[in-house]
Amino acid sequence: MNTGSLIAGALLLLVGACTSPLSREGRLPPPGEGLADATYALAPVPGDSDAAVAGAVSLVRDALADKGYRETANGRYRLEVGLASAAPELEVQRAESGESAARSMRRNPIVLCRPRRYVLTVGMIDRASGEVLFRNAAAARHCGTSPGKILPKMVRAAVNG
Fold first, then answer.
1. Whether 138 contacts 82, CB under 8 Å
2. What does the alpha-carbon distance between residue 158 and residue 150 come to, in Å, rounded to a whole number?
3. pLDDT in tens, 144-154
4. How far is Cα 32 from Cα 18, in angstroms, rounded to an integer?
5. Beta strands per DSSP E along the chain
6. What is the pLDDT of residues 36-73, one digit of tens each?
7. Could you tell me the maximum CA-CA distance found in the chain, to the nearest angstrom?
8. What is the pTM of this model?
9. Contacts 24+ apart (CB under 8 A), 90-95
10. Per the CB 3.0–4.6 Å rule, which of 62, 69, 97, 114 could disulfide with 32?
11. Which domain holds residue 100?
């Protein structure tokens, strides 16, 4: 084996330490064509939201439009979108990958970045009856200062499965 192959293999191993599989939990939104009224109104987003949240909302709107939903001021459903992030060492009751952070660190002991765990939640509630049409979450770990690269994949998982 030559030195170039060894270096390339080592770099691939290091890059792999910062990736995680995307997971989703919960019901997917049904196709809009199958609903009597596939309109929705966006729930207010907190005023102190950052660009990542605004980006998530925009991507979710586009994905729902592709699925047959329309946004209107008095839509039948209320759309809720949330984006949270935390250090992956923070343990939660239901880890998104079914694997603890400690186990993940043993598997990938060399990390050249500070990964963050991102969780995108999307749900729709009937504004008249309060019935939940769907609610789910997509989660992943990602290295970098923002979730911009992983967010489109998370939205696809949350809306399309």
1. no
2. 12
3. 767 788 899 99
4. 36
5. 23-26, 39-42, 70-71, 77-86, 116-126, 132-142
6. 999 999 998 776 667 888 899 999 999 999 999 999 99
7. 68
8. 0.73
9. 90/117, 94/25
10. 69
11. 3-160
The pair of three-digit structure tokens given for residue 69, joined into one six-digit string: 């939903």
User: Residue 15's pLDDT is what?
Assistant: 47
Query: And the tokens for 158?
Result: 């949350």
**pLDDT above 90 covers what percent of the chain?**
45
| CATH code: domain of residue 88 | 3.30.160
Q: Which residue has the tokens 């019935």?
A: 131
Residue 104 pLDDT more than 70? Answer: no
- Each residue of 50-75: b (16+ CB within 10 Å) or e? eebbebbbebbbebbeebebeeeeeb
Tell me phi and psi for residue 135, to 5 degrees. -155, 130
Number of domains in the chain: 1
